[in-house]
Amino acid sequence: MLEVDITALEAALAAGEPLIDVREADEFAQVRVPGAVLIPMSEFVSRMGEIPDAETVYVICAVGGRSLQVAEYLQGRGINAVSVRGGTMEWHQSGREVETGAV
Q1: Would the CA dihedral through 92, 96, 99, 100 be positive or negative?
Q2: Which of 22, 42, 73, 89 is the most buried (most CB within 10 A)?
Q3: Per its UniProt record, what CDD domains does this chain match (predicted)?
């Protein structure tokens, strides 16, 4: 399974699963899913050591393209990663809680 929807993400976050946001810092500051950790796609390879050791790592971007690429990259390295289809945009448009501002 390479992709999940925002409903599955919501359940995973409630269970304490990690979420990595691969957008750039300016996008992250505008709006993000609460609890997301920023590791921009442009820095991903050099920051691989920051990937949490978890059963499943959830990866999100704006709409799902970048996160799918990163999830495929992680899976190729033996990490069970899934992309969130629809991304932060769908999460926000659904009316779910979001955070804003620089971290």
Answers
A1: positive
A2: 22
A3: RHOD (cd00158)
29-56: average pLDDT: 95
Residues 6 or more apart whose Cβ sits within 8 Å of residue 61: 21, 22, 23, 41, 67, 70, 87, 88
pTM: 0.96
User: Which domains are seen in the chain, by residue range?
Assistant: 3-93 (3.40.250.10)
pLDDT tens track for 43-98? 999 999 999 999 999 999 999 999 999 999 999 999 999 999 999 999 999 999 99
Neighbours of 99 (CB within 10 A): 13
